[in-house]
Write a structure and sequence with these properties.
This protein has one domain: Umud Fragment, subunit A (Ribbon), CATH 2.10.109. By secondary structure, it is α+β, with helices and mostly antiparallel strands. The protein is built from 4 helices and 12 strands. It is globular, with a radius of gyration of 25 Å.
Amino acid sequence: MPDVGPTNQGSGRTAKARARRFYDLPVLVVAALVIAILINTYLAQVFYIPSASMVPQLHLNDRVVVSKLAYHLHRPRRGDIVVFAAPPGEQRAHSSSANPIGRAFQAIGRTLGVSESKTELIKRVIGLPGETVQGRDGHVYVDGLLLTEPYLPPSAVTDDFGPLTVPAGELWVMGDNRTNSSDSRVFGPIPVSTVVGRAVWRIWPIDHLSYL
């Protein structure tokens, strides 16, 4: 009579291993979700660009990674691209992609915590607390000195405004697309406390991956 003991023992071990994997799966899923929530809340978040206010640096429907940790390490600096809570009356509507791939990307993004930029704006820091900013002769001046802005195209023209002094604890922010941006020229300086974080990477489209 053949000995079948080892075969039965092997089958038993395989069944137990499968059962362990089955029961471990929910734990792994929950752990992954917790890690994702912690990253999204405290470290970084992905935003997509709903308007042309930051052209040519950022275009409609680009995706950027925003570091929420950056300003725990240093203060906002001139030239930083920041995401901040929209002032009252400046909330933006969701801009939906026209193509199926784009819509799918947005749908996936929402499940991963991607902001639809309904209540946040993205602009560049131009003036820091205590500085006086002014638009004059098509350019920006800070404390009376011409501001060099290499991120703008040579044809860019800034409308006249100011001079205005940025209050303590606030920032003067502007879009790179100076003729198509609702920014501090419209709603004034923004409180530093409303800044969500600094945009550090453009991750989509993939062929335009770049550090910001």
